[in-house]
């Protein structure tokens, strides 16, 4: 992959690829260029209301895209109250508008989607039953999924000369078999190892709340598209927080399952295959509601994906009482000293814990004393695992076209690892260090009889472009291989956040109250390994108390 | 671990350890030294009848140890028809006799076992119910398990100076909670990486069928003890065949589950912790019947071991229809060209396949053409993973006492790897190569709709000491992480085996028909990843047709 391209040509190649995708947006869905010229990465505009004000979507289309979650939509379609063609049209239009505001898409598959939607509608009419539990539902995919006949460049200019995908990712096959409709792929960072979804082909995805802020990454295209309500269910990979950070930055919620529960096979690798890293990449859903995540997990696993992917665990999705009627026990982590919480996030956590307590649940603070291993050191260890490749393959993929690395690659790393390179000998010790951390959390959860841990997903609301830094709070769940969900639980409000400010504490990135006013604030809820089912119900409880589910 | 010991002292240390264990055998259970003097590694005697002829066991004790499997025994004890004290006494006596014939034990815990057996009996009498599904059952353990208060030297002389274990292995805790009685630990090879259970502390375990043959390894102590009927259920580790090879060499059956189903935590490591090898060590049962393996798996998993060991998968043991009443589809592998089958094993496989076909099952030959990746190359790749440690820790443990390496360490390796040492860079490629092999088998099983694969466990019956070589057929299931069982399906019979001889085929180790006459012949049945439950029922089918369950 990534054949050598004359350096002078990379810009031409990227521009041509970008234009060919843009050309797939129907003319009548285009915003005036005078308007889009204002949507730049230095503008602090919010574009959240553009779909509603631009006149491109009908009132019904606005309703379809705004008023429901995926569970509602599949129910309405299954009952024949809504045609897939109408739903898909609405989301295609809205995604097209979103793309023009925040550069959230890579591949556009509107024509294919409309054909598939018609197929769904005809099937239902003819057979009197749905294709599956996701019948007719438009689903957006991170660019790294393979969809037959469509490219997967991953934002590497050198990948533009690769032929379109010859096969689907296993999950794409599974979702298709369940009735899904694919209509777009979404933007991500060059190398996928930063929280700024920025590359030299598709540009930089902007945060719809404030274009001068990051949309997060590596699935920032999904995050921005979901916030624009140009998608109701997205699918993303996550090895350090990639599926959760965009929800943290743009609002909404996402779910990272335990590894092996959702089939991973058949995607495009962003780096070298065969890593000995013990931190697996996983795939999970992002969207508007916890029940949609459950719909996704339940449906995918019911399709027996282990028959198609040997690395998927042969385990059914267990049915539990939903929601659990016993009081729950939550551990609470209120940050770590190397990355203290910004006031809005401290308040979000405080409010969440308070609401849980008020409703009879127990909160066990875990950040007093040395109950938990250092979150910062744990993330540093994870980063070593991510830097194992002696061949530095992602950089080879960059160099192959002559394109420059994106700026945030410099910021999403530990200064401690500047001169570090892996050895096989140290890898053994790293594995031992990791095992100790996993054991410590496991023992803690057992001894404290915890059902889940509430912790920050990030220390701040969406920061400015290229200033996110290292996602120490999300990568924790990856290293532990614990399922984890992220929920929007409120908004930054300067006047209320103020009392959570702590004097003399240095914050990174800087806290700018005027910038973050009104931005979504998120918490992370981490469950226990393989207990995705239990975590899902716990997330429902948290969502019910503080989540303010979107789309309803 | 393994503090430096003056070289001159290792013999004294080993002798003293050996004597201290031997001293735990009650005087009245000792065989005359004139008799035991004949039980040497160069003798071709069978000692299988010694327990019955030595006069140490009563007729009832002979019956208890010979006539039942573990399922029978726990049922009889639960019904109050048999006391644990009587069962445990009988097995302690028989294990003591076995030890004097074939050197199968390391640690002796007869006193502790008797106390525990009394506790079981008193509990049942007092409470009117059993402690658990393994109530009162004596279970033998490979030396690498930690049992509180008992040493775990693993046959390293340098480990003799370690204090006794301070805690139990997680599985030992689990089995204890289920009612088990521990009465002995069993012998294994220095480094555990050969099929000759031989070390400088406890000597060499001999094959009860013919003392000049290997008992197999690395769990040879279990294999020999089980063949002497000095145990009814043993527990062993397996990373290349360690739990299956002794059953192949000595008779009986064993089960290697999918990794993560039986808790592995808390044992003593034979080498360095933190290996990046993707081939996990697993623990499984060995003994007399498939239903005993099921009893073990079902009971252990019902105890929710994931609460105690974070690396155990949170998955229940699924209940299936037993046995499956549909015809099964079996793949058949009749060896590979680098290690062709000896006539008795070729006949064993042929008979097994024929019986299965006769009873309506389908046999799909997999060894024609290139349907499967080379078994030899697959084993070679596995061996590279086993040789990853740049510090060669097992050899450090040997050198720490000045003891010599055992001879078979030279024989259980690939000449291709003589000068090979691992690099981090190659490890990536090795992982890719492994993934391709896993994918090939997974695709094959799917395309051919196979329920299981019947293949050799080894190319021969038990060979002479130090000539087993590399276990290419068993390590396949470890690399694939497929569950696998081994069953004795007959005996070598020169006159019947003859027709399976192939002219001009070089056999390794050499085929000596007169030596192997009457030895058990085994087949291996490999199931699908995570489908341990299905494999167990399939093994029952094979056992029912050709297995001739022992103990009934």
TrEMBL record, chains A, B:
Give the positions the UniProt entry annotates as the active site: 142 (charge relay system), 218 (charge relay system), 242 (acyl-ester intermediate)
Pfam families given for it?
A: Amidase
Q: Does the keyword Lyase apply?
A: no
Q: Which UniProt keywords apply?
A: Hydrolase
Which residues does the UniProt record annotate as the domain Amidase? 87-535
Please report the organism this UniProt entry assigns to the protein. Decorospora gaudefroyi
Give GO terms: molecular function aspect only: hydrolase activity
Q: Which SUPFAM superfamilies match?
A: Amidase signature (AS) enzymes
Annotated residues for binding of substrate: 192, 218, 239-242
> Among its keywords, does the record have Cell inner membrane?
no
Q: Which family does it belong to?
A: Belongs to the amidase family.
Protein known as? Amidase
